[in-house]
Amino acid sequence: MADYDLWHHGDREVGEGLVDLAVNVRLPAPPAWLRAELAAALDDLAAYPDVTAAVTSVARRHGLPESQVLVTSGAAEAFTLLATALRPSRAVVVHPQFTEPEAALRAAGHPVHRVLLSPDDGFRLHPVPDDADLVFVGNPTNPTSVLHPAADLLALGRPGRLVVVDEAFLDAVPGETETVAGQPGFVVLRSLTKTWGIAGLRAGYVLAEESVVDSLRAVQPPWSVSSLAAVAVVACCRPAALEEAEKLAVAAESDREYLVSGLTDLGVDVLGEPRGPFVLIRLPGADQVRERLREHGFAVRRGDTFPGLDSRYLRIAVRDRDTVDGFLTALAEVRRLPS
Predict the structure, then answer these.
(1) In the sheet where 69-72 sits, what is the strand order?
(2) CB 204 within 8 A of CB 72
(3) Do both 91 and 16 map to the same domain?
(4) How many other C-beta atoms can be found within 10 angstroms of the C-beta atom of residue 23?
(5) Between the CA of residue 212 and those of 1, 56, 162, 215, 216, what are the distances in Å?
(6) Tens digits of per-residue pLDDT, 160-201?
(7) Which of 83, 116, 202, 326 could form a disulfide with 108 if both were Cys (CB 3.0 to 4.6 A apart)?
(8) How far apart are CA 189 and CA 34, in angstroms?
């Protein structure tokens, strides 16, 4: 099995003075209304956190019972909770995808079987081993940006199997189509950090059957979700925030299409059918291109730390059109340089 740096994340690509196209957080800072609510909560920090209102808000937002909601310190905490609480006989991670699930499973002592999807068919989802009783898959998937049809995800389900779907970027898809939230046998993970620019705050949640939520809660450290994160969850689940998120998703979709068009004009191979706020590209000498882009002031995400990918791949975050224009100009220039 190839050795990959499962703990490598896009923030390690970013440096002083670089334009960040490596991290998939859409906003550079939380919106003013969210900052105001967080600031107003500062006087309450002497009290221990209480996530009751956050659980109620998430349940209402998804139309599920509160017993099927667990608020977490970012979606990443959920991976560790799942790896700690569950005792799978065969855990499967569908790659390429966010490496945190496999890293958490391995840290908890679980062997991991990898199912590798292929760029040749657009990273189309296919069956996993019959004896798999725990399966992890992303939707839309980081780093491929592929949005799997809900029907394909549901086809993975079977008695005795738990399918964990990382929907951290689904609120960047207009209409949040293809969600499997509330489906028996499925665990859905959500993050608020990408859309609202609060990666440093760590706010996310789990949607699952009550028995699964109870198992995860039993191993969750006390007060792991901060008071400010709980406030953010409530604020971001309000109807006005959901309406704003939908507008941001529509804008991100337009900006992504602009980026893909520019890359295509440069003859760059954009993989799959991107639906998330990032795209995966493949080009010769991508590792050298990445270093040269840094010299031109742009940071992009290397692809060779994702199982199933290698040094020919780069992930590029979607940004506004002015930023994309500057990036495309730099990319064209570095590709003209001699090797």
Answers:
(1) 69-72, 204-207, 186-191, 162-166, 134-138, 91-95, 112-116
(2) yes
(3) no
(4) 18
(5) 31, 18, 9, 5, 6
(6) 999 999 999 999 999 999 999 999 999 999 999 989 999 999
(7) 83
(8) 22
Q: Are residues 20 and 40 in the same domain?
A: no
Cα–Cα distance, 229 to 49 (Å, whole number): 9
Percent of the chain as helix, strand, coil, to the nearest 5: 40, 15, 40
Return all residues near 328 (Cβ < 8 A) that are at least 6 apart.
262, 263, 266
Return the structure tokens found at 64: 């599920």
Structural domain count, the chain: 2
H/E stretch holding 138 reads strand 134-138
181 and 286 both lie in a single domain: no
Q: Which residues contact 180 (CB under 8 A, 6 or more apart)?
A: 139, 150, 153, 154, 163, 165, 186, 188
Residue 1 has pLDDT above 80, yes or no: no
- Residue 206 is predicted with a pLDDT of 98
Residue reference for tokens 């706010």: 203
Strand partners, 136: 93, 164
Please state, in angstroms and rounded to a whole number, the distance separating the CA atoms of residues 53 and 230: 8
